[in-house]
Amino acid sequence: MNIIVCENYDKMSQKACDLITKTLKNNPKGLYSFPGGDTPLGMFRAFTKAVNAGEVDISQANYVSLDEWIGMRITDEGSCGHFNQVNLLDSLEKQFKNTHIIDGAADSPEAEKEKLNSFINQYGPLEVSVLGIGLNGHLGFNEEGVDFSSDAHIIPLAETTKKVMTKYFGNKFSPEYGITQGISQIMNAKTVILLANGVKKAEIIKKALKHPVTNEIPATVLQNHPNVYFIIDKEAASLL
Ligand code: GLP
Question: pTM here?
Fold first, then answer.
């Protein structure tokens, strides 16, 4: 495992961006996956800047989102799709060759899940999977107790996740389920980059790195990944 502790959020974001753009230069046709949530916003900004400055070419690369709240549309502020659309795709002056953003409000979540699997099967395995981490150690919406062999699936949200989601939606929406890439798809990624910042993530980062691997703390599975980078700020690293 590569653990890179950065001075602050901006340096963490830039470091992740540099690793992604380096990989893109070597693997311009790969499949790249970024999460939603607050954590990757700085990385989105740095990446957009690099693409728009012509430092890296994404025209042959493919893009897939990691997860979504069931019931949420890409136009719903706070949804993962909205994060991806507004902070990444809309800001890019050039686009990826093929892009798949999960539609949490699709008529058939089951069919949407199969679309996600098909896209990853067609263009994958993931070249880079960028992840955030939930306070309970979830990756995407792979919540406590998740089957590590699963591919894309629909899963009831953990209580911790339901509490945290008010930061995205206030009281406007209260989803009960998530749709997510599965742990097997994340673990098949050639490179995994997990980002975490702030003291609130310190406890779970310590568990993810030090606790024996268990599906009760899904992020511990990354201890078994052959090429994983934890790129975290000093505060998130404060209990290591
Ligand atoms: C959210 C998202 C995840 C995200 C994680 C951390 O619920 N579904 O994809 O990585 O939880 O979010 P944040 O970066 O806002 O702390």
Answer: 0.97
